[in-house]
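Q: What structure does this chain adopt?
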Amino acid sequence: MVVRQQRCGGGALAVCALAVAGAMTVGSGCSAGDVEGGDAAGERALTVGAEVGTPAAAVGRAAEALVDAGSAEARTSMETAAGGTRVTIRGQGEYDFRKQLGRIRVVLPKDPAGAQEHRPITELLAPGAVYMMNRGAGVPDGKWVRIDTTALEDGNLVTGGVTDPMAAAELLRGARDVTYVGRTELAGVKVRHYRGTADLGRAAQGASPSSRGALAAAAKGFSKDTVPFDAFLDDEGLLRKVRHRFTFATEGPGVTVISTMLLYGFGKPVSVKLPSETDIYTGRVQQGPTGSESP
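A:
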C-alpha cells in the first residue's frame, strides 16, 4: 500500500491544513511591537551595502540574502478560525537556505479540556518533499511519512502547519504594490517594515528550481492569485519576520490562514539527515481528527 495524499479544492484546502492539528492569534514567539515613526529615506529606497532599490526590490531580494547568510533558526505560527474557534499551531527549528533543508518541531493545540491532543510533530523540510514523524494514527512509532509537496494544491504552504522558510522568502519574489511602513525593533534588532502583496505566479517563475514546483502548485490552489504580506528586513537586508495571509474560497465567507515566521541566529551550522527508505511508512494513514483522510 502507499500513503494516499488528499487533494483539496477551494475551502476544502483549509480543512487539509486543519487535519494536521485538528484545527489551527497570530504569534511568532516574539512580537514586532508597534511601528515607530516613518523613515523618510526608507520610504524612497532601502540601502543594503552599496545597493539601493525600491521597496519591492528590497523584499524581492530576501531569498537571495538568506542564501548568502546560509542558515537561521526559526519560529513559526499558523492560525485560522473555523467554526467560531480560533487556534494556533506553533513550530520551532532551524533551516539551511543553501541546501534548502530544515527541521521544525510543530506543537499542536490542546483540546478544550487542556489535555494534549497529539504528540509534537517533527517535520523535515526538503526540496519537493516534507517528512513527518508522529504524523497520525496508524503510523508505527519511529516511522516517517513522506509527502510530495508538488502534488499538494497549496505546495505545502499551509498543509503541514508550517510554511517552509525558503518558500516563505521565495514568495516575496512576486512582491508588488509594496509600501514602506516605517522602522521598528524586533527582538532587539532595528528593522524596516514593508507591506504589500505577492503574486503567486510571478513568485513561482522567479523562484529557485528547488522551490519552483511547490510554488507553481500553490499558484493554482488558492482562491486568490495574490497573498498579502508584512515583511521586516534588517539593515543588511536579512528577512527577520514575515507574515502571509492565505485565503481559501468556501461556500460561506472565505477562510484566511495566517502564517508567521521569525528568523534569528543566522549562520549557525544546521545538520539535517533525511530518512532512509526503510524508515518511511508506506501504508495508509488513518483518518485525522477532522474526519479528513490524512496523507
